[in-house]
Amino acid sequence: MSSLTRTLISRGFSDLETSERFLGFSELADLDQTELLDALSVADNPDLALHSLVRLLSVVPEVGNRLSVVDPDSGRRVSNESLFRLLGASEALAEFLMRHPENLDVLDVVPSPEPMAADPVALRASLLRAVGADPAAGMPTAQITGVAARVALRSRYRRHLCELAVRDLGAASPQSVMPVVGAELADLAAAAVEAALAVARAEVGEVQGVEKVAAVRFAVLGMGKCGARELNYISDVDVMYVVEPVLDAVTGAPAIEEGEIVTVGNAMASALSRAIYAPEREPGLWEVDANLRPEGKDGQLVRTLDSYLAYYHRWAQSWEFQALLKARTIAGDAALGASFEQAVAPLIWTSSERDGFVESVQAMRRRVKANIRGGDADRQIKLGKGGLRDVEFTVQLLQLVHGKNDPSLRIRATTGAIDALTKAGYIGRTDAALLRNHYTYLRVLEHRIQLVQMRRTHIMPTAPEQLRALARSLQGPLSLKRPSADSLLSDWAKVKRSVSSLHEQIFYHPILATAAHLSSEDAALTTDAARARLAALGYRDAAGAVRHIEALTAGVSRRAALQRQLLPVLLGWLADGVDPDAGLLAFRRVSDALGTSHWYLGMLRDHQAAAERLCHLLSSSRLVSDLLEVSPEATAWLGNSKELVPLSFESQWTEIQSKLSRHPEGTEAIRLIRLLRQREILRIGIADSSGLLDQDEVSKALSDADRAAVLGALMVAEEEIYAGTEPLTHVLVVAMGRQGGREIGYGSDADVLFVHRPVDGLPENQQGAATQQAMAIVQKLTALLTAPVRPAIQAERVLSVDADLRPEGRSGPLVRSLDAYREYYARWSSAWEAQALLRAMPMAGSDALAVEFIAMADPIRYPQALSKDDRREIKRIKARMESERLPRGADPARHVKLGRGGLSDVEWLVQMWQLQHAHAHPELRTTQTLAALHAAKDLGLVDEADAEILESAWRLAGKIRNANVMWTGTPSDLLPTARRDLEAVARWCGCEQGSATAFEESYLSLTRRARAVFERLFYG
After folding, report:
1. What is residue 766's predicted lDDT score, i.e. its pLDDT?
2. What is the 3-state secondary structure (H, E, C) of 265-278?
3. 974 — phi, psi (to 5°)?
4. Alpha helices in 607-665 (DSSP H)
5. Which of 878, 869, 926, 918 is nearest to 900 (CA)?
6. Do 730 and 842 meet the contact criterion of CB atoms below 8 Å apart?
7. From the CB of residue 454, how many other CB atoms can be counted at a distance below 10 Å?
8. Cα 123 to Cα 317: distance, rounded to the nearest angstrom
9. Would you place residue 362 in the very low, low, confident or very high pLDDT band (cuts 50, 70, 90)?
10. CB-based contacts of 651: which residues, under 8 Å, 6+ apart?
11. What is the pLDDT, as a whole number, of residue 426?
């Protein structure tokens, strides 16, 4: 290794080969190499500083005279640290100095460890003078326009940017000076906008007339980071434009008509943007973005104050008031801008009372937690987890929640808002110090990355040499540390983890401190403040929520201590559900029921996925929360996905047989059978909500649970009715409808037929007794499944047995012998009764009888031909059912079973095909709707596109039925109209939070298309 290589390494160089080559260039021939390397070593990136210096010397050789400056304290010439630091930090600003060497004097300063900000008034005056405008004029107008004005404006802006960068890079503590830098960047951007407006006045005046321009008051509102005076080195500048007519001093009449105001204002706004960003030999500064205006890109570019207020009072969404939190007049008519700020302030600080505020907050939280697409998620400084957006969300949310009653919080800048929240007691001092430190750290990271090329980026670099330079830039010039790329990434990871947890720490812990009456040196909220925070999260009964928190955290027990520790996170998870209040109440009840169970407290503490799953269930499902409250021990399943695998029918039947052998007494046995069914429904519900089961698996598992319960009840009923005597008959329960298709949902009844067959050799005179015995068994079975038991089964979803699909419906006998069924179907059955048999499947009872029943049913449900009369009758019944069975007042478009494009439409169409073609095509012989639909598609009875529409509509309707039960605990066949219920159903159907309207539109559109397919293929 050469001595030069060792020297380069010791001075912090990374690209040794390239730097050695640059040191040999003629531009550096007259310089002392040792002194040069010492000077370059102060740069955060000595390689970049060297390369930029050589390029600068090649363009402006006299820059060699600026490599040293006079130290004002000692009078000696010393290395020009400002020059070397700037060249090592920003290639883009070095290139600006190459283009405009007349600005090199900005480097002739000795950096201060505690730099002062430039005067905003002076910046404004400088930019205005650059375009020949008078800073003292009421409406400054440029004396130059076009290319000359753009170059002059942009060059003057970048000169001041170099001055700021020199002071920033020389600061002893980059984080301490970050708020000053952000404020000056915003002031400089405001000055540029003011100068651009002066150019716009001149350019529009040339076209539309100076008098018209002079008759328009024009104010520019800065939004976002510019409005908050915390701008980045390179960022879009968000703005809104307000216009008003100048009034005649004598008459008070407008000097210009309203229509002309907007025309002139639009022209000025467009010209302003061109002056700053249009392509030119001096590159544009940044984009002027007016998309935060009312109606966004589709809205008017400029508006009068009354037009803005009319929109905000009538049409604005909650997020628009949150955006106005940062609004500040940055250019143009200051009085008009102040009028705007004053007019919208009450709307901002009362926005928490508006409908939709909670949803807006939840949308903000979703944006905070949204994954970044592509491979940049882990490198995002702004949008990633633990990034700047997390900090800004926390601070703005606290401001919006508490700012209504506390004017001291009405501050635009994030760092200033943190200080105000701390001073007012809404954030604890320790948490505030961490949050402020992390925010400034992340902002300095962002600034240093952007400075290099002056590009709008928030991505952490990956090259080791870039990371080392970035690590040095964070330390400040007085630091003796030599940070590495690994140390930077480690520090950044710690900051991200801390920021991720600070939201819970800052937002929820003070609520607990208040509710649990804890003494703490950190923030303690008033009861009203705690309620305000809970309300902002979506808790409708904030006072009730505080009472639940008090109950959960009171005392000195281990449980209370642990829940004080965990509730800040749990409250957020509960708030992610549709009904946080119900979720918190259910959580309290489950916790009370489980007491100090070590496994429960351990699960909450050590198994995050299980705890989050529990909160989601309790706040999103009345069905599951009701069942968990009476079976809290099932909470243990949440920590083990294997426990959430539904038991097969065979496993359940084995367990039932074991219970029957140990509990021969009927009432005790049936209670255990019904408890087992309830347990399995709970298991299925939890697995379903956890994404462990698909729709078909849910239906199959529920069908297995019902089948096991019916078979168990049949065994108990037969045991009681036979009473130790020889049976006269054997009974078969045949599943019908969706139960027969194993397509049931959480609220489905058990549609059945009851069949019996007297034992072989039974005398003729005992045939009547056999029928009576069968009737007694069937009636007993029904009572066992539905009648109250003692002790009562809390929260039971009773399995209702419905035999209305039997021959002759409710008018016919409840149970018939197989021979009676055979005779009836041969002589009397109608088309709808044959159709009902399409889904008949033996469910419980004699296996031999089941085989004979299916052999009897197949010729009836799969006839050789379906007559025209039968087809006409089926269509007539379908039409009649739609008109008569739809509940009074129900919207046909929203009824998922009988309504337009719903379950009934798809099932009747498929069953028509089965009746017509299953005799010739055995693949249609199935009790399952989708299996038959797929077979029909394969046979060409329906094309692929129509089949896809029918299947999608059928599946979605089934999901909605299940979602209604999961959400409310009660069956419903209607798509909800209430927004909250619709949101819950949408989320149960797999939609993202806040997608209720889109889900509703999707369902209505899909079912319209399904209905069109149905009418064409069924009636056509």
Report:
1. 93
2. HHHHHHHHHHHHHC
3. -110, 135
4. 608-620, 622-630, 649-662
5. 878
6. no
7. 20
8. 36
9. low
10. none
11. 84
The rounded distance, in Å, linking the Cα atoms of 12 and 979 is 61
State the pTM of this model. 0.75
Cα separation, 168 vs 180, whole angstroms: 9
Instruction: State the Cα–Cα distance between residues 849 and 856, nearest whole angstrom.
Output: 10
Closest CA to 46 of 15, 73, 77, 79: 15
Please state the rounded mean pLDDT for residues 212-234: 96
Nearest 5°: the CA angle 56, 62, 64 is 70
Q: Across residues 118-147, what is the average pLDDT?
A: 97
pLDDT grade for 520, boundaries at 50, 70 and 90: very low
Q: Cβ–Cβ contacts within 10 Å for residue 957, how many?
A: 26
> How many angstroms separate the CA atoms of 203 and 132, rounded?
13
> Are residues 700 and 652 in contact, defined by beta-carbon separation less than 8 angstroms?
no
Q: What is the pLDDT of residues 897-954, one digit of tens each?
A: 999 999 999 999 999 999 999 999 999 999 999 999 999 999 999 999 999 999 999 9
Return d(Cα 777, Cα 637) in angstroms, integer.
Answer: 37
Partner residues linked to 816 by β-bridges: 755
C-alpha–C-alpha distance, residues 276 and 371, integer Å: 33
What are the tens digits of pLDDT across the range 392-416? 988 988 888 888 888 999 999 999 9
Containing H/E element for 102? none
Distance of alpha carbon 562 from alpha carbon 605, whole angstroms? 8
User: 266-305 burial string, b = 16+ CB within 10 Å, else e?
Assistant: bbbbbbbbbbbbeeeebebbbebbbebbbeeeeebbbbbb
State the DSSP code for 217: E
3-state helix/strand/coil string of 846-875: CHHHHHHHHHHHHHHHCCCCCCHHHHHHHH
Burial class (CB in 10 A: 0-12, 13-18, 19+), 693: buried
What is the CA angle 387-388-390, rounded to 5? 70
Half-sphere exposure of residue 448, counting CA atoms within 13 Å on the CB side? 31
Q: Are 386 and 372 in contact (CB under 8 A)?
A: no
Structure tokens, 91: 């290639």
Q: Which has the closest alpha carbon to 329: 202, 226, 217?
A: 226
State both tokens at 406: 């506390």
Query: Which residue shows structure tokens 């190499």?
Result: 33
Q: Which amino acid is at 606?
A: D
Closest CA to 961 of 780, 744, 667: 744
Name 4's Cβ contacts closer than 8 Å, sequence gap at least 6.
Answer: 20, 23
Q: How many whole angstroms separate alpha carbon 356 and alpha carbon 905?
A: 37
CB 574 within 8 A of CB 587: yes
Provide the angle, in degrees to the nearest 10, between the axes of the packed helices 558-575 and 598-606.
Answer: 50
Whether residue 94 contacts residue 56, with contact meaning beta carbons closer than 8 Å, is answered with yes
- DSSP codes of every residue in 266-316: HHHHHHHHHHHHS--SS-----EE-TTSTTGGGS-SEEEHHHHHHHHHHT-
Q: Where are the alpha helices (DSSP H) in 315-428?
A: 318-324, 334-349, 357-369, 388-402, 414-423
User: Which secondary-structure segment (H or E) carries 238?
Assistant: strand 237-245
| Angle between helices 305-314 and 334-349 in degrees, nearest 10 | 10
